[in-house]
Amino acid sequence: MSDLVVADSEGGVPDAVANAVRTLIEWAGDDPMREGLADTPRRVAKAWKEYCAGYAGDPAVHLDRVFEEVGGYDEIVLLKDIPFQSHCEHHMAPIIGRAHIAYLPRDHVVGISKLARVLHGFARRLQVQERLTAQVADCIWNNLKPLGVAVVIEATHACMTARGVRTPGVEMKTSRMMGVFRDDERSRREVLALMGL
To answer: Which of 180, 185, 155 has its CA nearest to residue 170?
Structure first.
Protein backbone atom coordinates (compact mmCIF):
# COMPACT_ATOMS: atom_id res chain seq x y z
CA MET A 1 0.00 0.00 0.00
CA SER A 2 2.88 2.42 0.65
CA ASP A 3 3.54 2.96 -3.06
CA LEU A 4 -0.08 4.13 -3.44
CA VAL A 5 0.42 7.19 -1.27
CA VAL A 6 3.43 8.61 -3.10
CA ALA A 7 3.14 11.77 -5.18
CA ASP A 8 1.56 11.21 -8.55
CA SER A 9 1.25 12.87 -11.92
CA GLU A 10 -2.45 12.26 -12.60
CA GLY A 11 -4.37 14.76 -10.47
CA GLY A 12 -4.70 12.91 -7.17
CA VAL A 13 -4.43 9.41 -8.62
CA PRO A 14 -1.38 7.36 -7.61
CA ASP A 15 0.71 6.31 -10.60
CA ALA A 16 0.55 2.67 -9.50
CA VAL A 17 -3.26 2.69 -9.70
CA ALA A 18 -3.39 4.44 -13.09
CA ASN A 19 -0.78 2.03 -14.45
CA ALA A 20 -2.76 -0.95 -13.20
CA VAL A 21 -5.84 0.28 -15.10
CA ARG A 22 -3.75 0.86 -18.24
CA THR A 23 -2.44 -2.69 -17.95
CA LEU A 24 -5.98 -4.05 -17.65
CA ILE A 25 -7.13 -2.11 -20.72
CA GLU A 26 -4.18 -3.39 -22.72
CA TRP A 27 -4.69 -6.94 -21.46
CA ALA A 28 -8.35 -6.75 -22.56
CA GLY A 29 -7.13 -6.00 -26.09
CA ASP A 30 -7.41 -2.22 -26.49
CA ASP A 31 -4.91 0.63 -26.72
CA PRO A 32 -4.87 2.55 -23.41
CA MET A 33 -3.32 5.55 -25.20
CA ARG A 34 -6.05 6.05 -27.81
CA GLU A 35 -8.15 9.21 -27.47
CA GLY A 36 -11.23 7.62 -25.88
CA LEU A 37 -9.18 5.76 -23.27
CA ALA A 38 -6.36 8.20 -22.51
CA ASP A 39 -8.08 9.62 -19.39
CA THR A 40 -9.80 6.37 -18.42
CA PRO A 41 -7.18 5.20 -15.88
CA ARG A 42 -7.60 8.41 -13.86
CA ARG A 43 -11.41 8.27 -14.13
CA VAL A 44 -11.52 4.59 -13.11
CA ALA A 45 -9.26 5.22 -10.13
CA LYS A 46 -11.42 8.12 -8.93
CA ALA A 47 -14.59 6.07 -9.47
CA TRP A 48 -13.20 3.20 -7.38
CA LYS A 49 -12.24 5.59 -4.61
CA GLU A 50 -15.91 6.68 -4.58
CA TYR A 51 -17.27 3.11 -4.85
CA CYS A 52 -15.18 2.13 -1.82
CA ALA A 53 -15.74 5.25 0.28
CA GLY A 54 -17.22 3.06 3.03
CA TYR A 55 -13.74 2.06 4.15
CA ALA A 56 -13.07 5.66 5.21
CA GLY A 57 -15.30 5.59 8.28
CA ASP A 58 -17.39 3.64 10.76
CA PRO A 59 -21.07 3.47 9.76
CA ALA A 60 -22.03 3.24 13.44
CA VAL A 61 -21.25 6.95 13.92
CA HIS A 62 -24.55 7.71 12.18
CA LEU A 63 -26.41 6.13 15.10
CA ASP A 64 -24.80 8.27 17.81
CA ARG A 65 -27.56 10.88 18.00
CA VAL A 66 -30.92 9.55 19.18
CA PHE A 67 -34.22 11.14 20.15
CA GLU A 68 -36.03 10.15 23.33
CA GLU A 69 -39.05 12.45 22.99
CA VAL A 70 -41.18 10.24 20.77
CA GLY A 71 -44.61 10.82 22.33
CA GLY A 72 -44.88 7.28 23.63
CA TYR A 73 -44.30 5.73 20.19
CA ASP A 74 -43.48 2.04 20.64
CA GLU A 75 -44.24 0.41 17.30
CA ILE A 76 -42.11 -0.64 14.33
CA VAL A 77 -40.00 1.94 12.52
CA LEU A 78 -39.41 0.90 8.90
CA LEU A 79 -37.44 2.46 6.07
CA LYS A 80 -38.44 0.60 2.90
CA ASP A 81 -36.97 0.35 -0.59
CA ILE A 82 -33.65 2.09 0.13
CA PRO A 83 -31.67 1.91 -3.13
CA PHE A 84 -27.99 1.01 -2.89
CA GLN A 85 -25.02 -0.03 -4.99
CA SER A 86 -22.09 -2.16 -3.99
CA HIS A 87 -19.47 -4.33 -5.65
CA CYS A 88 -18.96 -8.06 -5.34
CA GLU A 89 -15.68 -8.91 -3.64
CA HIS A 90 -15.19 -11.94 -5.90
CA HIS A 91 -15.37 -10.25 -9.33
CA MET A 92 -15.65 -6.55 -8.38
CA ALA A 93 -18.87 -6.48 -10.41
CA PRO A 94 -21.82 -4.26 -9.41
CA ILE A 95 -24.46 -5.32 -6.91
CA ILE A 96 -27.55 -3.15 -7.34
CA GLY A 97 -30.53 -3.45 -5.06
CA ARG A 98 -32.78 -2.13 -2.36
CA ALA A 99 -32.93 -2.69 1.36
CA HIS A 100 -35.73 -2.68 3.91
CA ILE A 101 -34.57 -1.81 7.42
CA ALA A 102 -36.84 -1.99 10.46
CA TYR A 103 -36.40 -1.82 14.20
CA LEU A 104 -38.66 -1.85 17.24
CA PRO A 105 -37.41 0.96 19.49
CA ARG A 106 -36.86 0.41 23.18
CA ASP A 107 -36.91 4.00 24.46
CA HIS A 108 -35.46 6.15 21.67
CA VAL A 109 -35.36 6.50 17.89
CA VAL A 110 -32.81 7.67 15.36
CA GLY A 111 -33.32 9.98 12.38
CA ILE A 112 -34.49 7.83 9.47
CA SER A 113 -31.79 9.07 7.11
CA LYS A 114 -29.27 7.50 9.48
CA LEU A 115 -30.52 4.02 8.61
CA ALA A 116 -29.78 4.69 4.94
CA ARG A 117 -26.35 6.07 5.89
CA VAL A 118 -25.52 2.86 7.77
CA LEU A 119 -26.51 0.82 4.72
CA HIS A 120 -24.41 2.95 2.36
CA GLY A 121 -21.46 2.92 4.73
CA PHE A 122 -21.27 -0.86 4.49
CA ALA A 123 -22.37 -1.10 0.84
CA ARG A 124 -19.53 1.17 -0.28
CA ARG A 125 -17.04 -1.61 0.37
CA LEU A 126 -16.27 -4.80 -1.51
CA GLN A 127 -19.06 -7.08 -0.32
CA VAL A 128 -21.09 -10.23 -0.42
CA GLN A 129 -24.80 -9.66 0.12
CA GLU A 130 -25.04 -12.01 3.07
CA ARG A 131 -22.37 -10.11 5.00
CA LEU A 132 -23.84 -6.73 4.03
CA THR A 133 -27.21 -7.81 5.46
CA ALA A 134 -25.62 -9.00 8.70
CA GLN A 135 -23.43 -5.91 9.09
CA VAL A 136 -26.36 -3.50 8.76
CA ALA A 137 -28.51 -5.47 11.21
CA ASP A 138 -25.70 -5.96 13.73
CA CYS A 139 -24.76 -2.28 13.62
CA ILE A 140 -28.32 -1.19 14.43
CA TRP A 141 -28.73 -3.89 17.08
CA ASN A 142 -25.45 -3.09 18.84
CA ASN A 143 -25.78 0.69 18.75
CA LEU A 144 -29.49 1.43 19.16
CA LYS A 145 -30.19 -1.51 21.53
CA PRO A 146 -33.75 -1.91 20.18
CA LEU A 147 -36.21 -4.70 20.97
CA GLY A 148 -35.84 -6.03 17.46
CA VAL A 149 -34.12 -5.47 14.11
CA ALA A 150 -35.14 -6.75 10.69
CA VAL A 151 -33.09 -6.22 7.54
CA VAL A 152 -34.05 -7.61 4.14
CA ILE A 153 -31.94 -6.94 1.06
CA GLU A 154 -32.99 -7.67 -2.52
CA ALA A 155 -30.35 -7.25 -5.23
CA THR A 156 -29.11 -8.26 -8.63
CA HIS A 157 -25.48 -9.25 -9.10
CA ALA A 158 -23.62 -8.46 -12.32
CA CYS A 159 -21.20 -11.29 -11.52
CA MET A 160 -24.16 -13.59 -12.29
CA THR A 161 -26.12 -11.57 -14.85
CA ALA A 162 -23.32 -10.17 -17.06
CA ARG A 163 -20.70 -12.94 -16.87
CA GLY A 164 -20.38 -16.59 -15.91
CA VAL A 165 -23.84 -18.16 -15.97
CA ARG A 166 -25.24 -14.97 -17.64
CA THR A 167 -28.70 -15.22 -16.15
CA PRO A 168 -30.38 -11.80 -16.11
CA GLY A 169 -33.53 -11.08 -14.11
CA VAL A 170 -32.44 -13.07 -11.07
CA GLU A 171 -32.73 -11.31 -7.73
CA MET A 172 -31.13 -12.50 -4.52
CA LYS A 173 -32.90 -11.94 -1.19
CA THR A 174 -31.21 -12.09 2.20
CA SER A 175 -32.59 -11.34 5.63
CA ARG A 176 -31.47 -11.00 9.21
CA MET A 177 -33.96 -10.97 12.06
CA MET A 178 -32.93 -10.13 15.62
CA GLY A 179 -34.72 -9.81 18.95
CA VAL A 180 -38.53 -9.96 18.77
CA PHE A 181 -38.47 -10.31 14.97
CA ARG A 182 -36.55 -13.56 15.38
CA ASP A 183 -38.19 -14.89 18.54
CA ASP A 184 -41.85 -13.92 18.03
CA GLU A 185 -43.62 -15.26 14.94
CA ARG A 186 -46.37 -12.62 15.07
CA SER A 187 -43.82 -9.78 15.14
CA ARG A 188 -41.89 -11.36 12.30
CA ARG A 189 -45.04 -11.65 10.17
CA GLU A 190 -45.96 -8.04 10.93
CA VAL A 191 -42.61 -6.60 9.90
CA LEU A 192 -42.43 -8.71 6.72
CA ALA A 193 -45.97 -7.61 5.81
CA LEU A 194 -44.99 -3.96 6.30
CA MET A 195 -42.02 -4.57 4.02
CA GLY A 196 -44.39 -6.01 1.42
CA LEU A 197 -42.78 -9.45 1.57
So the answer is: 155
